[in-house]
Amino acid sequence: MSEAPGEFGLIARHFRPLAGPGGLSLLDDAAVLDPPPGRSLVLAADAMVAGVHFLPDDPAETIGRKLLRVNLSDLAAMGAVPLGYLMTTAFPRDIDDAWIAAFAGGLALDQQEFGLDLLGGDTVATPGPMTLSLTILGHVAPGAALRRGGARAGDEIWVSGSIGDGMLGLGVLQGRFAPDAAGFLAARYRLPQPRLGFGQGLVGIARAAMDVSDGLVQDLGHLCRASGVAAEIEAGLVPLSPAAGALVAGDPALLALCLTGGDDYELLFAAPPGAEAAIRAIGGDTAATRIGHFTAGPPHVTVRDKNGAEIALPRGGWSHF
Amino acid sequence: MSEAPGEFGLIARHFRPLAGPGGLSLLDDAAVLDPPPGRSLVLAADAMVAGVHFLPDDPAETIGRKLLRVNLSDLAAMGAVPLGYLMTTAFPRDIDDAWIAAFAGGLALDQQEFGLDLLGGDTVATPGPMTLSLTILGHVAPGAALRRGGARAGDEIWVSGSIGDGMLGLGVLQGRFAPDAAGFLAARYRLPQPRLGFGQGLVGIARAAMDVSDGLVQDLGHLCRASGVAAEIEAGLVPLSPAAGALVAGDPALLALCLTGGDDYELLFAAPPGAEAAIRAIGGDTAATRIGHFTAGPPHVTVRDKNGAEIALPRGGWSHF
Fold first, then answer.
1. Number of CB atoms found within 10 A of residue A91's CB
2. For chain B, which has fewer Cβ within 10 Å, the N-terminal or C-terminal residue?
């Protein structure tokens, strides 16, 4: 035997060009990396399944980028700087080589945009839906990582960007809602924007932070449980994009979907009163909006309308089981 | 909303007890870890799909342990010391809680045996076969990692333990071969033995190393390509366990399956002539056997019988595509 068989040729053609120095050209059993001296490592892993986390007919390019970005969003939530990633791909056996080329091309774009390299991974075949898993490494100053557990009663609740676009974008792609002219909502579903610079800027300002991936209300509940506080938010303060606002204006019931739908990949954080100027000074193109406050009491999320009446939501957010 | 839904309860019940200090009780978006000062990090990731990498009716306990051990084997091949791991699990939606408890119990056993903790991960549902992915972290002295690219013409080819048990064990479990009385072969398929101590002992002795996962002949071909040498091995020197030897004695055609089958998770390495005493002195319970040598020439693997005649093999090893 002298030629590498299909699996290894696939890796050489499409994934080797993505490897950084630590990846050893994907020729070895493992990557070797000297971590930045004097920094703590930050590590997260997320998986995506075709038909569950992305639509099977989404463009290959954005599937790779979304996989990387949902993990980058976890680094953003900790205030970390990206370093590299490992990826395992379970592809259907009849996958098209051009599909993998586009998938890898998307990853190459985002590697450049966010400053990280592929370190290693595994490529296998599956008789089921495409299943992708990515582990990301970042770094942060020791003790500086933003955690979920630091919110205190009296802290204000803030969120970056806009909420609900991802879930409405999924609905647009599934034909349930009318698309906006610019394709903004569908693009937000396919290509979330990890708030890395903003998250790094929150270090020293925010008392607690996390990213919103499973629905604002449910994720706020996680933050409440980790911090031992309750939360009250005002639905009308939750920032909607113009495209989401237009859909909600036409069908006010969609507001609940925005608050619970998930796939936002925005940062949800707690800051003490008086932090507004510091938050606004972080700059970049990420806006932040104050949507409520934490109170003493057992972990619980209350959503109120502008008159203070509680809004009952059908569910808090997404759960796989 | 005040209660965590199913997915988060599952994680809390089964996976939180596996988390080490860096895992932050799996309550945050990411793990935070201070890497051992003055050491290089070693990182690998492997995926397993039900029906492809393990049998759907394998015990849950050994599935978790195999997932961890195939990754530990990659660390062993680099001479690294285990540090921690992240895991993503795509489970069928109707999975039994007792199954996950046994799966996590197996991981707990191996965490203790091999000295590492869970750092984080993701749990999702899949409509397809169970798909598991694990990323492992280890560490090694800077510059000491064993690589595939260092073999030179004249170096001897060595392999740890015994070859072929995993593939024969799969055949036993599928009813194709008679089981050995002790159940050794099936156990070797379900529970490979990562050669961590032996791999660490090879640092400074071996010129190149890798683990045998996709078949001895194919993996030796990878080592040849990475090193720019050719290899000659003598089939009769390849170490077989007593159970494998008994099957091969009954059907000599099974020797080819042993040489190409995969799922061995033994170490294949190159050492200069005269290294035998140092190799034997590594000790532990891992034996090593010299099976051939490297020659100058384009990358190629030749398998010979004891009379020097070349043995033609139907294929070199396993490829997913």
1. 22
2. C
A170 and A295 part of one domain: yes
Record: contact B128-A133, CB cut-off 8 A? no
Q: Across chain A, what does the average pLDDT equal?
A: 93
Range of the domain at B247: 156-304
C-alpha to C-alpha distances, A71 to A76, A192, A215, nearest whole angstrom: 9, 11, 16
The answer as to whether A311 is a domain residue is no
pLDDT in tens, B105-115: 999 999 999 99
Residue of B nearest to A319 (CA): B7
Q: How many domains does chain B have?
A: 2
Q: Which residue from B minimizes the CA distance to A136?
A: B30
Question: Model confidence over B142-170: pLDDT tens digits?
Answer: 999 999 999 999 999 999 999 999 999 99
Number of A–B residue contacts, CB under 8 Å = 283
Pairwise pLDDT comparison (B199 vs A1), residue with the higher score: B199
Is A173 found in the same domain as A92? no
Tokens at A303, concatenated:
């959503």
Check whether B4 has a pLDDT greater than 50: no
CB of A86 less than 8 A from some CB of B: yes
In this complex, do A32 and B49 lie within 8 Å of one another by their Cβ atoms?
Answer: no
Q: Indicate whether B127 and B167 sit together in one domain.
A: no
Say whether A78 and B145 touch across the interface (CB within 8 A): no
The CA-atom distances, in angstroms, between A317 and each of A48, A219, A233, A261, B138 are: 17, 8, 15, 6, 36
Identify whether residues B216 and B119 lie together within a single domain: no
Q: What is the pLDDT of residues A208-248, one digit of tens each?
A: 999 999 999 999 999 999 999 999 999 999 999 999 999 99
Inside any domain, residue B150 = no
Q: How far is it, in rounded angstroms, from Cα B213 to Cα B222?
A: 12
Is 50 exceeded by the pLDDT of residue B54? yes
Provide the H-helix boundaries in A35-164: 60-78, 97-114
- Partners of residue B267 on adjacent β-strands: B211
pLDDT the model gives residue B1 = 32
**Higher pLDDT among residues B194 and B22, named by residue:** B194
B314 falls within a domain: no
Q: Please tell me whether residues B234 and B285 are part of one structural domain.
A: yes
CATH at residue B39 = 3.30.1330.10
Domain membership flag for residue B132: yes
Q: Residue B307: name the closest of B234, B238, B258 by CA.
A: B234
